[in-house]
Input
Amino acid sequence: MASSTNTPDWSRVRLHVVTGKGGTGKSTVAAALALGLASQGQQVLLCEVEGRQGIARMFDVDPLPYEERRIATGLHHDGRAPGVVHALHIDPESALLEYLAMYYKLGRAGRALDRFGVIEFATTIAPGVRDVLLTGKVFEAVQRNSRNRNATRYDAVVLDAPPTGRITRFLNVNEELAGLAKVGPIKGQADTVMTLFRSPRTLVHLVTVLEEMPVQETADGIAELRGARIPVGGVIVNQVRPRDITAADLEAAVAGRLDTARVEADLDRSGVAGGASLVAGLVAEVRDHAERRELEDAQRAVVDSFGLPTFELPRLTGGVDLGGLYELAADLKNQGLA
Amino acid sequence: MSTARKTRTRVGPLATAPSPAPALDVDALLDDHGTGIIVCCGSGGVGKTTASAALALRAAERGRRVVVLTIDPARRLAQSMGIEQLDNTPRPVSGLRTNAKGNRKGGSLDAMMLDMKRTFDEVVESQANPDKARQILDNPFYIALSSSFAGTQEYMAMEKLGQIHADARRDGSYDLIVVDTPPSRSALDFLDAPERLSSFLDGRFIRLLLTPARGPARMMTAGLGLITNALNRILGAQVLRDMQTFVAAFDTLFGGFRVRAQQTFRLLQADGTAFLVVAAPEPDALREAAYFVERLSEDDMPLAGLIVNRATPVPPGSLSADEAMAASERLRKQDPGSLTAGLLCLHADQTRIVEREVLLRERFAAAHPQVPTAVVPALAGDVHDLDGLRQVGDLLAGGSGVS
Output
């Protein structure tokens, strides 16, 4: 298990961006991180930007609108107010209309823009605008100001971000807009957002599993983020296989030196029928497991070579449900990420 | 406001008794010379690229003349296939088995990695005169559209498929095209891409930009003025000018794009095409697969089957998870470090995962009883050479994976 001693003080980080290759469980990790932070009494906002309604599914609530909703509240203890996870599903169309209303008081013109298909145009085709809007809304939630009255102020915002392959382009909105909007408020907005993303108040965490391709993509992602001067936080190694067998036994299993007579005797003693064929089956299983563990260890060495704080989450046998999320949140907390 | 996925109707038997899915006969599909195109689709991270490469290799070694169009293969796999260079042209893959059992003569395999921007550029260059093409290629809107518009990659995969198919028919170079689809947010993006591009090109705003203050558009000019002003305030005047230049220059190509998109769509509906939906035995991936299967039937696209990739290997024997756990706990009480207890624990864990995966598959089969399914057990390591692909191919075809 990763130790918490290698974790720097991240208590002042306001925006945690969670990315990862498809299939590694980045949305699960983002949700667990939000829960872990909230469990310490914080007000946390969990955002998703890919239109998947993954948060609603994980927390088993109705599909989320473009509106901040409480989705998980902690229990009272020590007389302190419990932390809360709020969720927000950000879609670019709504973000643009809100942006126009907030900054330009575009009443009639705003509606006209929608009617003439400009909103659709801007959010689907105009280069970079989609990402400016999505990141702009995240920015707004982190840096709540007087324009958004009555809005909750958050201690931390967790962003379930696009996958590793797209994350730098997504966060690097400034670059995308270069050569397009050279002046004007959209450009100004992009610049301000970039200032936050490059500041120590932001961290990008990368989720991976211990397989070759996701680990390689993680390495590439880290290099790209660093190239764009966006601060990289930790690597979260997800879906780690159980460790019920000692290293020595695994080695013996690979070498075919396991004490099968002893296993058979143990099985007899504990009342499991099956005899030699069961023993052979178990030994075949453990050899396969050992082989996978060996590959995992090789990838773990690669992850360690990144020199970043690393956190490990177990593979949950029964799949991830709300209880599973709480369990993972506790794991992240114990390891010092949340 | 519109959400990303419109409400779709579910399509299924509505009332059904559970029954196992029919088996997908991969070799029959590959050997059938009526199969001209195989499209592998599914959500990201399920192993589509490896599956399509494995299918292509197996087909080639069974005597088909195959080209595989991949999107984003792992570096080492790309290297082993000789396609790490993005040059948008199919290259022959060397190292095919020639004499081994089951291989007929005459098979070949070419592979290419899709370069979406280059494909787009080529389309523009082939459709416009050099001056106009340059004007388009240099426009910042075009640059962004061709490299980052969501859906461009999907659209370009289809465009390239159309091109290769036309070439292959003309010169008889290939009799099977295997297509890997981009790692989309949602598996449906692939089918929606042409429609999205088309509807964008037909958009009111675009037409407004093209025909200011003439004919019927005159009625809308008051609104347009309002919009132009608003956009100038937000984006700066230069952006709108770039946009107008781009749209005007691109205008002549619009029709061509739409016609080609429709042609490719019809090609996908034709009998020679077979869709294989790839999924991992996970709820999210199978949910995407279900949407995809339903969508294919709605659009009359020929679905050949479902590949459940990276399934947990079924543990041998019949010892149940509960029994194993109980015995393991008894042993641990006597000896906390008991090896046998560890083995039983591992067996229980493995068995539970397999049970869960089987249940997920059964549920899928109940909702989609007509979909032949192949289950591919997970290999211990990653696939990065032809031997690995061969092994996956063998597993796909229902073999033991030992080749």
Remarks:
- Confidence is low (pLDDT under 50) at residues 1-5 of chain A.
- The first helix of chain A runs from residue 26 to 38.
